[in-house]
Each structure stands twice: as C-alpha cells, then as structure tokens.
Amino acid sequence: MVENALLMKPGGEDVLEEYKSENSLKHRTRRQLVNILASHMTEMHGTIPSRNQKEKFALGIITLFPSLKDPFSPKGYLNQDFLLLFGAETFKPKVIKEAKHLTQSTELCRLLTAAENLSENDHTNWDSDMASLLLLLHLLPPTAGRKRIKISPSDAVGKMLLFHKSCCSIVEHLQGREAEQPYIFAVGRTKNRIDAFYIVDKQLIPCQATSSLGAFDELFKSHYVFNLSYDETLVQLFTFVQTTVYNIDVTTTDESPRVREFRAKVTPNFKLFQ
After folding, report:
1. pLDDT at 216
2. Cβ atoms of residues 197 and 210 within 8 Å
3. Closest by alpha carbon to 159, among 125, 184, 140, 122?
4. How far apart are CA 148 and CA 153, in angstroms?
C-alpha cells in the first residue's frame, strides 16, 4: 500500500531510492514521505481518516522502512508519527484557520506569519510547524489550575518549549531551572534553525527527532513512558492532542468544554454532545 502510493506520486521514487542506498531518510526526505502519504491518505479516506486507517499507513511505513520504527511507541509505529497525524494535510491548516478568528495580538500575528511560511528570513521566530503548535496553545489556553492563578498562552510556552542559543552553556541552564514536568529544549543558532532537540525531565534526553513536530511527538509520549501527568497549564493542549490527534482513551478522558468544542470544529464527524 505504502510502496504503491509512493510509486504513484511525484518524488516517491526518490524516497525509495534514498532509503535503499542509505538505510535511512534525511529530514527533508522524511518530510517528503509524510507529505506524499498524508496526501494519498486524504485522497483515499477524506480529510479526517479514521484511527484504523492511520494505523494501517503507519504499519505500512515501518514495514517498508524498518529503521523508522519508534522506540517510544508501544506498537513501534512511525518514528515521529505526529508529523503524519498533525501535519500539513490534516490538523495544521485547521489550527491556522481557527487562530485567525482570535483577537490578533502582536504575538499571535507573528505566529500566524511563521505558521504560513511568510517569515522564512525572520530568525527570531519559530519554524512553521512549531508556530502552528504554539497557535494551538492560544486556541486551547491555560486555565486556572489548583493554584487558582491563570497565565497567558505566551507565558505558558515556557512550560512546553525553551530555545537555547547553541553558543551558550547548557549546563548553566539546567542548573538554574527546576521543572516539574518535561519540556522541549531546542538548541540552535536561531529559533528557525535548530541543531538539536532534547526532552528535559530532570535530565537531558536527546531527541531522535530532527524536526519540531518530531520533538513534540517525543515530548507527548514521554508522559506515557515515564508515567507523568500533564503540566496543568498545558492540560487542554495535551488532552486535545491525546484524544483528537492520537485517538487515545477518547471515551474515558475528561475533556474540558473548550477542548470538546474545538474538537467539534476540526473533526466534522465528532458529535459535541455525544
């Protein structure tokens, strides 16, 4: 199924040839693989494929490309499979569309510009994929938790993601910060040119991913690997990702009205009052 889809689409043979010669795929080629298959999947099954349909494609990928197996995934499915589930052909454009209806602050406008790839030369902004995830945080903002203190989405970003300039000391950063929940530590020269991603959970864990969506995929899965609860400021975002993107424990998870309403907007077949 996967091989046939690649042979049918422009650029697919290049993916197969690179894997045959290298036994791996470069980041750009992996993105090309995901875009080709996501496009094929939506052509075959509509804009919101079922979980079974997604899993068939994921299984097909690791069968054809064994080195892409994900050690953090219980079934070994596609390394960085968040790319396939959230990427350009699925939820990402819907997140951008919905974010345009929010009150447009300076920060939100910067993220929308980055998400739509309109600021490639702006080294102070994140890449398109990470900007889209941060837009999702604005759409599903923090609520007042047990401490009854509500913070803004911009302030909550630091609970999920931190940029560290590659010329500065990582050790000093880790010694000066205490975090109760894991977060992404992005090291690079600029925000849109990251050299390496890490998950910080009291120690520095290198990500296998070389992309922002891949790093977020590993961050999300780290909660399951280490049996951790979500940071209370990120509960709405992670709950949406869990139930809507990954389809995990959909019927048993306690979703806030905001998450349920947003899920209804981006998944046409979801019944808000089911």
Report:
1. 92
2. yes
3. 184
4. 16
Pairing mode of beta strands 193-200, 183-190: antiparallel
| DSSP 8-state symbol, 199 | E
* Dist CA 133 CA 212 (whole Å): 9
Tokens standing for 247?
Answer: 């389809």
Task: Summarize pLDDT for 48-105 with one digit per residue, the tens.
Answer: 556 677 677 777 887 888 877 765 555 555 544 565 556 555 678 889 999 999 998 9
Q: Which of 102, 168, 191, 176 is nearest to 138 (CA)?
A: 102
Cα torsion angle, 91, 92, 97, 101, sign: positive
**Two structure tokens written together for 183:** 């977060």
Question: CA torsion angle for 16, 22, 23, 24 (degrees, to 10)?
Answer: -80
Query: What one-letter code names the amino acid at 211?
Result: S
Sign of CA dihedral 204, 142, 89, 5: positive
Strand 161-165 with 183-190, pairing = parallel
